[in-house]
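Form 7-S
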Amino acid sequence: MQLELAHASHFQESAVPDGTRLAGWAALAQALSIKAPVRRPSCVSEKHIKGSQREEDTWQVFDKRYWPGDTFADHLTFAFRHEVLDLLILKRVFDAAPMDAVEELVRAAPTGVPARRLWFFYEKLTGRTLNLPDGQNVAAIDLLDPAAYVTAKPRLSRRHRVRDNLLGAARFCPVIRRTKALEEFVGRALDEKARETVGRTGSHLVARAASFMLLADSRASFEIEGERPPRNRLERWGRAVVQAGRNKLDVDEIVRLHQVLIEDTRFIQPGLRRESVFLGERDHNYDPLPEFIGARPDDLADLMEGLIEANDRMSEAGIDPVLQATITAFGFVYIHPLQDGNGRLHRCLIHHVLAERKFTPAGMVFPVSSVMLNRMDNYRTTLQADTGPLMPFIEWRPTPDRNVEVLNDTADLYRYFDYTAAAEFLYGCVQRAVEHDLPREIEYLRRHDEALRRIMDTVEMPDRLAEDLIMFIRQNGGVLSKRRRQGEFEPLSDEEVAQLEFVVQEAFDGFDEIAVSAA
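Output:
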């Protein structure tokens, strides 16, 4: 099948580099009027360039020798050989192209690696069966290259002679590329480091550290949403997180965790939402100005079952727990299946996967939300980089009740994401929590207990007052302020105050420098 490949100056709101022609995914999307974002477009120069390819803004520019040709098969094969797998574009291409064009491609080289992979993907993603006999008795191939992608335990498709090692299935199929950053994160064995830190610490100290970190994570998760909730709501969040990993994750468990998180449902619809949802602002008439629109209500059940199916497959395959947590938690928040609380439950699901996979020491919660709060710009950028490009392809209109109504079929937009950048972000947060926050909290408590013991040896006072004394001295640069000296600590003599200041100073000597170097 020939493609109409007129020279384009712009493609999906981006200027095409001068002297180049669209190739691969971009060429297919342009020729077939695909309504989906090509996130890493490619083009081929009309001249020789230094090296075989180069990066130019968001473009991958190939030397003229890479020009594949003018047919559907040429550009689909180019995409598979030279570009990152884009399942969303592939699915939309299969929907737009005639079935006989795909059959022709496979028949031309039925035992070839690209043809077999395309054949499998066509039938997997569309649910349609090509008019082709089962594959010949040749050696099976991996669907995804395990050296380039994170892959699951393979399942042989005898018809295609392909080993399906995808992380999900047709209704929810995530991709994570193997990058240098992710390989380094995985190689740090952060779960072992956490267990070593906990193992050399007394159980009582560990329990207190866990309690403090859970509270910090609770506060941070609400602050990310711009909220400062009362203590009882923080405690509900804590209960939801502590329960994470105890029960098998499914849609019912997600709904149950949501009910733990939000007890008062008088104004919140429990369970999967039955109306649209958007994030963004409103204009002066209070009409929506969405920056993000969640999946349509009619698509939620299928998308969530697909998400759970992928989570189960990753668990069964022993996929790295942080990578699994990335897909499950970020996939959830991109679908946005609840009327409210999606962001908090998204972060709760991170804890769920890490606990269920025993990445986190028993009874411990890594304060991932605290790290995310400290890296809020990176967190927002990660979320927006995945969801922002979808908005031009979502047709919507405002409703009389000032919500949004989605007018086109958008389900595929939420099925197929590349989670590589999100995985790198989350792994960085987990690394910070394990290598800095956990040992810092334990070290703080150890020094605090030592200071408390020595204070009580110097002056007899209630524990709470002694703990306040430590806090006030540390907050004031190592000395007790005049206001506090004349207030609740007025009974102390000048000599006693000096002794107590020295106790706190000595106990915490070098602590802040340790914290900074660890960061």
